Protein: dTTP/UTP pyrophosphatase
Organism: Rhodanobacter aciditrophus
Amino acid sequence: MIVLASASPRRRDLLSQLVKSFEVMPADIDETPFELETPEEYVLRMAREKAEATIEKSSLGVRDLIIASDTSVVIGDTILGKPTSLDDAKRMLRSLSGQTHSVMTSLCVCNGGLNRVATRNVVTEVTFREISDLEIQQYWNTGEPQDKAGAYAIQGIGGIFVQHISGSFSAVVGLPLFELSQLLSEFGVSALKENIHE
Ligand SMILES: Cc1cn([C@H]2C[C@H](O)[C@@H](COP(=O)(O)OP(=O)(O)OP(=O)(O)O)O2)c(=O)[nH]c1=O
């Protein structure tokens, strides 16, 4: 069985582009960064902990394949998770306005015995145009920023702020398709074979 250890509807949609049949089993973990952790260490730890929590909660075994991921927006040395309030979103979007930031999306693919674990961190550079405070308020009112890292969604209305992207669009949305297909093939799963029309 292939298991997606995620509550994200974006990740479910993206994974369904690669594999036909999988179960969704969200993991509930503490997402607080450690004090001296780099953003890369943080996103890789998050993906691994989501995979481990799901294995434990659902008693998955060596024959199961687990996929977990984490997306964080990084500006300078600051990790931006999901905004908890309008003020939080304002702080985030003001810091991204007119600047280039990194979106880090980590992947952890492993079996339920954790004797085979493969991880990847995919970094995408995103440049925003300048955004006014009025636009931030209006954007918040659309309801889109609330459950998104960095308080925006490139695949939604937030796309109007994105002047340039260098890297992986699917990684910014939540699951890097190129890198995930590479990891899956290491575990014997071929996205093309999975999708042969019968
Ligand atoms: C930057 C950006 C993030 N996001 C989303 C992807 C992730 O769902 C979310 C980041 O939060 P995550 O903590 O990575 O994921 P999640 O809590 O939604 O799901 P789970 O931990 O159960 O896997 O932000 C977009 O949809 N579009 C974007 O442009």
